[in-house]
Predict the 3D structure of the following.
Amino acid sequence: MISYPNAKINIGLAITSKRQDGFHDIASCFYPVGWSDILEIIPSEELSFQSTGIDIPGNADHNLCLQAYHLLNKDFNIPPVQMHLHKIIPIGAGLGGGSADGAFALVMLNEMNNLGLSDEQLEEYAAQMGSDCPFFIKNKPVYVTGRGEVFNELDLTLKGKKIVLVNPNIHISTKEAYSGVSPKALDFELKATLEGNIEDWKDHVKNDFEDSLLKKYTVIDKIKSDLYKQGAEYASMTGSGSTVFGIFSTEIDLSNYTEYSVWSGDLD
Ligand SMILES: C[C@@](CO)(OP(=O)(O)O)[C@H](O)COP(=O)(O)OP(=O)(O)OC[C@H]1O[C@@H](n2ccc(N)nc2=O)[C@H](O)[C@@H]1O
Ligand SMILES: Nc1ncnc2c1ncn2[C@@H]1O[C@H](COP(=O)(O)OP(=O)(O)O)[C@@H](O)[C@H]1O
């Protein structure tokens, strides 16, 4: 079985408080985008994982695809599989690519083994792998609170708009990014603003990681300004960086970004 785990962007990312468990409460819109990895899982004599494409830092035994297998195997004793991940989504980029791989692996293993787990049950398994992971089970635009796993319906569609994602090849660790922010309660209605006019987003909808990271990595700020100069209706860094996205209704000239990793396409 083959699937195409896709990236997400954060439209607005408020870091509202530090929790007792060491995590932070956030408020954000998670929106799926088409930049995707390729994940193949087939039955096999023994469990194995290999990856091609972009190098994944860290021990392959801890890859989120294997973590997904072990989580389900603990409860359902599922037969071994061979997993092959072709990694395309930049890593440590605020795009949730690793989380998408883990969540898609859960969905595939549920189907291949006829486990009959509901989306809600799969979301609970996904939450054990990371805060971003549960989103990728339903993989639909949503307003998120809690540490990223509490979902609220959002009346927003960007269908028909174009998006460009520019990753300046800087790897930012999520943990490190959170340690640089001072949490602050929201002082306006983020959800209502997202459900309103996109023209109003520029002045209100903000990624709280930008305050510290745009000063440290000025190239991120430069790309964001450039996307606005090119006519973006809204531009922002996504997640804990370093990728910047711009949402457009017009064609986009990508020639300024040849030295970076870039993806552009239509939003659903
Ligand atoms: C910032 C966000 C925004 O969507 O995305 P990315 O930039 O990673 O894509 C997420 O909150 C990232 O979620 P995820 O990447 O799954 O993080 P996790 O593996 O759960 O946690 C990694 C570390 O980040 C910090 N962390 C994460 C989530 C959260 N709500 N509060 C935190 O303080 C903790 O220090 C934790 O140990
Ligand atoms: N399948 C995977 N793809 C990418 N990273 C993975 C994967 N499995 C585990 N990881 C670990 O997760 C970290 C970053 O995850 P990723 O979701 O790509 O970034 P971000 O947190 O910016 O969204 C990497 O440092 C890597 O060690």
